[in-house]
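Each letter names a residue; the fold follows as tokens. Both lines appear below:
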Amino acid sequence: MVHYIDSFPGREVTIKDKDYLYFGGTSYLGLQTDKEFQDTLIKNIKKYGTNYGASRNSNVRFSIYKKAEEYMADLVGSDTCVTLSSGYLAGQFVAQYFNTAKYKLFYAPNTHSALHLATNIKQAVTFASLNIAVREHLEGKSKSTPVVLLDSIDFSGAHYPDFEGLKQLPLEKVILVADDSHGIGVIGSDGGGVFEILKSLGPRELIVCTSLGKGFGIQAGAIFGTNDRMEQLLQTPFFAGASPAAPAYLATLLESKGLYSNKRKYLVKNKASFLNSLKKKKRFNFMQGHPAFSYSDPMFTDYLFKHGVIITDFNYPNEHAGLKSRIVLSAHHTKQDILGLAALINAYKSC
């Protein structure tokens, strides 16, 4: 069921003059409706303007970009960072950069469309088939380097936190590209995401691209990797020709470190309260440290709606794809919200 709204949904959303508890979306830290966060952004918009429509290679440059990128690289654990206007653009930038004769692209199961190109490259159905394809390529006559692209969090629990499928691959010979849009800001040390975990697996090279809109609440994207690779990306027409993220957003990111930390702590408490109160956890797919709980029972979605709860439930990435149904906890939910949701789930006869 599609619901049309006229304001950003917080812990509640109003549909046809009726208030519902909202356990969906990707506002994991509840920042978009947080007054302190909004006030910081408004202050920075007054200083930096609403947008910056010039090239990052212009002769007049905002210093805030370098400051934010140095901070993010340190947080994630990479050599360096490049920011862009969106996570989708970051993914497309990396995928297009590697789409040359020097490289061979391989897509892991459930890879987000941000990393896909308009080509005939097929996504692997399983990691076993991906492993075979990569090894056959390495054993063949081609000199091109394999590049494996995947989502760090695919909501099935098949990737993060253990990445068992990736461990099958000859990673020492592979450039690994991961989209961490649902992880960064939420999981990892201080919200640093999965970079350190993936680096520990020993890939030939690691690149992580991500949206900063989900975990950090700002309209921007980022790419993390080695100094040499990022320098190559900076020299491309793709980077020079695209307008950057609005500087006000990056200034807000830098000024909100304490708020981010407090919100993550509250989110951890909310998830702990939910799990401690939930009697039938096996009906959900969920991951350690992440606040999303996926399921496959459409009747359960209707049940929640009838009891005043709206969750994420739609066909993604297009109408021909499978139904994505998940409960998403956020830092803006109260303890009463969490316990009430758990009680509803426990009372569901078919769950």
